[in-house]
């Protein structure tokens, strides 16, 4: 996605614990994130960030700017993959129903707006969240997605040409028209993409910190 964005900022700390974050030297202050979303989570991790606060809600409501929303979602996804504590808010279109479940592998937001049962949905999200809930990995000649967002393990394996390129394009948001239609439709059927405006965005994360030995995931 090449849409130009105002440089976003986040607040960051060197520890997860609120009391520890209040100690001298634990705050990284306000950190500017110039440039595209790719690599920003790694940069924050390298600075020592273990707790990050997004001051602006991720807005997926009708009429909101999709580039800004997907930047925020990408940051939440990539920080979740590193087991960083992310404090963020999510706005969905009123009546969005269970749309939040598509994002339930991400660190739960501090507030959810839009669904009629937003409070109950957020409690369910928090109770059911754990690391590695929906991830992808690349092996020699294949890509595999392992997805537990829906209560059971779903596996999607692709070894045909074009899938790795499509995922690379979708990773931080791409125009739907730029992705081969058959591949996009497969990802849509498996609920592996989120669509907003003319864009589609890759939902799973490539895990950076395993919950347990990778052979058991």
Mean pLDDT figure = 91
> Structural class, please?
alpha/beta
Strand content: 15-25%
- Using the CA coordinates, give the radius of gyration: 17 Å
Order of helices and strands: EHEHEEHEEEHEEEHEHEE
Q: How many domains?
A: 2
User: Runs with pLDDT <50, length 5+?
Assistant: none
Give the overall form.
globular
How many strand elements?
13
Main pleated sheet: 4 strands, mixed
Give the count of helical stretches. 6
How far apart, in Å, are the first and last alpha carbons?
A: 31 Å
Give the strand order, joined by hyphens, for the main sheet: 2-1-3-5
Short structural summary:
The chain is α/β, with parallel strands linked by helices.
Question: Describe it for me?
Answer:
By secondary structure, the protein is of the alpha/beta class. It has 2 domains: 9-128, no CATH class; 134-216, no CATH class. Helices cover 26% and strands 24% of the residues. The protein is built from 6 helices and 13 strands. The protein has helices at residues 18-21, 40-47, 66-81, 118-128, 163-170, 181-189; strands at residues 9-13, 27-32, 51-53, 58-59, 85-87, 89-91, 111-113, 134-139, 142-147, 154-158, 174-175, 193-196, 199-202. The strands form 4 sheets. It has a 4-stranded mixed β-sheet, with helices on one face. Strands 4-6-7 form a 3-stranded parallel β-sheet. The longest helix has 16 residues, at 66-81.
Which characteristics define this entry?
2 domains, 24% strand, 13 strands, alpha/beta
């Amino acid at each position: 996605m090449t849409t130009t964005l105002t440089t976003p900022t986040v607040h960051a700390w060197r520890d997860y614990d609120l009391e520890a974050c209040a100690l001298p030297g634990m705050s990284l202050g306000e950190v500017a994130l110039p440039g595209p979303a790719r690599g920003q989570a790694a940069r924050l991790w390298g600075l020592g960030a273990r707790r990050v606060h997004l001051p602006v809600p991720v807005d997926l409501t009708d009429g909101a700017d999709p580039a800004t929303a997907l930047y925020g979602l990408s940051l939440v996804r990539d920080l979740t993959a590193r087991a960083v504590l992310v404090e963020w808010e999510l706005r969905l279109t009123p009546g969005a129903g269970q749309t939040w479940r598509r994002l339930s592998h991400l660190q739960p937001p501090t507030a959810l707006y839009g669904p009629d049962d937003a409070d109950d949905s957020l409690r369910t999200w928090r109770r059911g969240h754990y690391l590695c809930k929906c991830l992808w990995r690349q092996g020699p000649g294949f890509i595999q997605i392992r997805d537990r967002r829906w209560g059971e393990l779903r596996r999607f394996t692709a070894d045909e040409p074009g899938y790795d390129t499509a995922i690379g394009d979708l990773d931080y948001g791409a125009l739907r028209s730029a992705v081969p239609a058959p591949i996009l439709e497969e990802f849509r059927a498996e609920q592996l993409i989120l669509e907003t405006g003319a864009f589609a965005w890759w939902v799973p994360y490539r895990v950076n910190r395993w919950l347990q030995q990778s052979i058991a995931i």
